[in-house]
Amino acid sequence: MDGSPTRDRVTGQRERAVVAKRIDDGSADTTEIRNLARAAGCEVVAAVTQTRKEDPATHIGEGKAETLAATVTREDATVVVFDNQLGPYQTYNLGNVLPEGVRLLDRFRLILEIFGQRARTRKAQLQVELAELRYELPRAEAKASLARRDERPGFMGLGEYDESREEDIRAQISRIRDELDRIEETEQHRREQRRESGFDLVALAGYTNAGKSTLLRRLATDVDVDENEDVHPDLDITAESEDRLFTTLGTTTRKADMDQRDVLVTDTVGFISDLPHWLVESFKSTLDSVYRADLVLLVVDVSEPTAEIREKLVTSHDTLYERNEAPIVTVLNKTDQVDDAELREKRAALSALSPNPVAVSARTGANVDALEDRIHAELPDYERERLVLPMTDDTMSVVSWIHDHANVSDVDYGDQVVIEFEARPSIIERSRAKAGELAPSA
């Protein structure tokens, strides 16, 4: 995982991929796995699907495995991507059927490959490493179990068994968790400093390609707030937003362009369906920006089918309400891609899950002003304050600090300085403390 698109090791060209998917019943949809493969830098040249119960040996059955191998040969593909989770034995058996040299990735191995390409910060790299180790651990345990039972290293072609490997993996997982905990403590301290500076924290959540990055850029006023945080390539002031999954793995925080109050908006990696628990757990520290926000904007693509939107909302709510205490506002994005009748119909159909959503087009800016008003209304209430300050040499610095951290409505300069403003409760407490320090001694 060198951060570059997936390319053939010999020719240097983008790898030609065949995607495969098995479902128990119905018709298999390969749209998402195709998008994931493209996000990894592959050129998708064919798809093979199968409707049947899972085959323990090859996942898709012997006959369909042969069809898959023939498709790979016909299309001159160099990688096969399954939109399913493959067990270690299934991976081995399929590898024996496929042409020599063809890589085999299941859904989660592919996601890890994409994450590895996008990981720019130390935190993101650690999360990828943690997920990879959690992916590898059950495979190491399977090798150990077979080796102990069969007393033959490398049984079933799963590779030579190193009895210390399980222990090594567990030790590495523990080390990475400790380092991620230290990083999170630093980030939590940074969030508290921002709150103490008068900022409200708003987080964007939602599935990939819902338009979160475009909405962030629409709401934002500056390029980046914290140089230590990962910045989306498509948030450069000269760049266009990309229709691309997982543009970044880290978080991007920018100051919102709002008159009412000082707001920082943070975007994180998008949700994706059917992620296993171990993978979600590996990246849970990325979601701390969501869990610890003052307000969450749950962005959905309103141009998608209603059933798909509903399913994503349910999954998102399950994820967010597990640890989040902040209010959640649903944002129906991409209204430029639906007509008024369709929008009304979807609003009604989704009303139980999203009783009062805000419909916008981040791309065109339509109704974003209404979203800003909603953000202001949903954030914690400001408190009003009136301070009477003595006229001392240090008073002007306090007045300047209040201007920087609060909404000042009036300042009267006379024998004393009377300043009226509204702000977060923490800012009012600090302003009172600063005023107290100015009081002349008895």
Structure description:
The protein has a six-stranded mixed sheet with strand order 6-7-5-8-9-10, with helices on both faces. Strands 2-1-3-4 form a four-stranded parallel sheet. The protein has a three-stranded antiparallel sheet with strand order 11-13-12, covered by helices on one side. It has helices at residues 31-39, 62-75, 88-97, 107-118, 122-150, 165-196, 212-219, 277-282, 288-291, 306-323, 340-349, 368-378, 395-405, 425-438; strands at 16-23, 43-51, 79-82, 103-105, 200-206, 252-255, 263-267, 295-301, 328-333, 358-359, 383-390, 407-413, 416-423. The protein is elongated, with a radius of gyration of 27 Å. Helix 5 packs antiparallel against helix 6. Residues 1-5, 152-159 and 222-248 have low confidence and may be disordered. Strand 6 (252-255) and strand 7 form a beta hairpin. It has 442 residues and is an alpha/beta fold. It has 14 helices and 13 strands. 36% of the residues are buried. The chain has four domains: 16-116, GTPase HflX, N-terminal domain (Rossmann fold, 3-Layer(aba) Sandwich), CATH 3.40.50.11060; 120-183; 198-378, P-loop containing nucleotide triphosphate hydrolases (Rossmann fold), CATH 3.40.50; 383-438, Ribosomal Protein S8, Chain: A, domain 1 (2-Layer Sandwich). 43% of the residues lie in helices and 18% in strands. It starts with 15 loop residues before the first strand and ends with a helix.
